[in-house]
Amino acid sequence: MSRVALIDDHESVRLGLEAACARDGAQTVVFSGSTVGSYLEWRALTAAAPADVVVLDLTLGDGTTVTENVSSLVADGASVVIHSVADRPAAVREALVAGAAGVVSKSSALDDVLDAIRTVAQGDPLNNVEWASAVDGDREFADAQLSTREREVLRLYATGLPLKAVAERLGVAYSTAKENITRIRVKYVDVGRPAPTKVDLLRRAMEDGIVASDGAPSAR
User: Fold this and answer.
1) C-alpha–C-alpha distance, residues 65 and 52, integer Å
2) pLDDT, tens digit, 9 for 90 and up, residues 68-118
């Protein structure tokens, strides 16, 4: 069962999500509050483990920024799902750059929100209309300027092949494939889109059309 924290300065939103999680039975809400600071204080006072998933409102009333909130939660060990209105793509991009696992609109059905929580709790990338609208048309966000070989390596590695198998498939040395992955990660960091894990690399590959949205290799 996934441990979920709800952070939103609208109590009615939190109560609705908490009730939905209770009905679903696959998640248990371990914290509900209006600020990231109160969640971190709860963690410190109770010595509780980080929540598996924090469902976070994009804008809180305490004056904190999106980057501050998402960065603090990710550094503390939680995955973050942004739950907000979908009309602020710049703020959504800021949250994604800071390390949020994805975004789901407050206009979405509760079942869709629960699906998003389950997906992120399993360590899978979250891909939906809100995510796409946040990155669509933003050249700086979407383009890490990968070479043709780097795109080939990323496509194979991100869709599940071990790095040794990637090297064999492309007919290059293991060290060469490893250097390509290192350069890919550096390039994504340079455009504000860090990808420290394989799941992050899959997410970047899907954002850039290197891998299809279902995780399969793209024809591009």
Assistant:
1) 22
2) 999 999 999 999 999 887 556 667 777 877 888 888 888 888 998 999 999
What Rg do the C-alpha atoms of the chain give, in angstroms?
A: 18
Q: Residue 193, Cβ neighbours under 10 Å: how many?
A: 23
Structure confidence at residue 164 (pLDDT)? 93
> Please, is 96 exposed, middle or buried when counting C-beta atoms within 10 Å of its C-beta (0-12, 13-18, 19+)?
buried
Rounded to whole angstroms, the Cα distance separating 159 from 63 reads: 40
pTM above 0.90, yes or no: no
Evaluate whether the domain defined by 2-135 bears CATH number 3.30.465.10. Answer: no
Distances (CA, A) of 167 to 79, 145, 147: 31, 21, 16
- The tokens for 153 are 């390596």
Please state, in angstroms and rounded to a whole number, the distance separating the CA atoms of residues 12 and 80: 20
Sheet strands (E) in 102-185 = 102-105
Backbone angles phi, psi at 122, to 5 degrees: -80, -5
What does CATH list as the number for 141-207? 1.10.10.10
**pLDDT tens track for 172-181:** 999 999 999 9
